[in-house]
Amino acid sequence: MPRSVNAVASRARRKKILNKTKGNFGSRRNVWTVAKNTYEKGQQYAYRDRRNKKRNFRSLWIIRINAGVREFGMSYSEFMGKIHEKNITINRKVLADLAMNNPDAFKAIVESVK
């Protein structure tokens, strides 16, 4: 009796990964073992960086708020402490956007906190 290897499923499994490595250079796109390693490493980076993106944006927002608040003679930590004290619930993302794109509204918030 001949050996059953299910070549159809094996080829489909390989083809699926080779299609996902299409834009890569050289053997990274068409040599099975290299392509598989490339694809798996890319997925690891994607997983890690979905989390890092959140950290990076929070850091950017803090930098922007700090720059906006410095014009009014305060530091970021002073400002955030007073904002929490006054129970103003605006998150850092919105504060950073106001500091950059709507300085008048940001100034009003800073004045209300002072």
Provide the descriptors you would attach to this structure in a database record.
114 residues, mainly alpha, c-terminal domain of poly(a) binding protein, 6 helices
Which SSEs are present, and which pair or pack?
Blueprint: H1 7-20, H2 27-30, H3 32-70, H4 76-85, H5 92-101, H6 103-113
Helix pairs in contact: 1-3, 3-5, 5-6
Structure description:
There is one protein chain. The chain is mainly alpha-helical and 114 residues long. It has a single domain, classed as c-terminal domain of poly(a) binding protein (Orthogonal Bundle). Helices cover 77% and strands 0% of the residues. Helix 3 (32-70) crosses helix 5.
Which overall shape is indicated by the principal axes computed on the Cα atoms?
rod-shaped
The CATH architecture can be given as Orthogonal Bundle
Number of E-state strands? 0
Q: Major β-sheet, in short?
A: none
β-strand amount = under 5%
Average residue pLDDT:
94
Order of helices and strands: HHHHHH
Low confidence ranges:
none
Topology-level CATH name: c-terminal domain of poly(a) binding protein
Helix content: over 70%
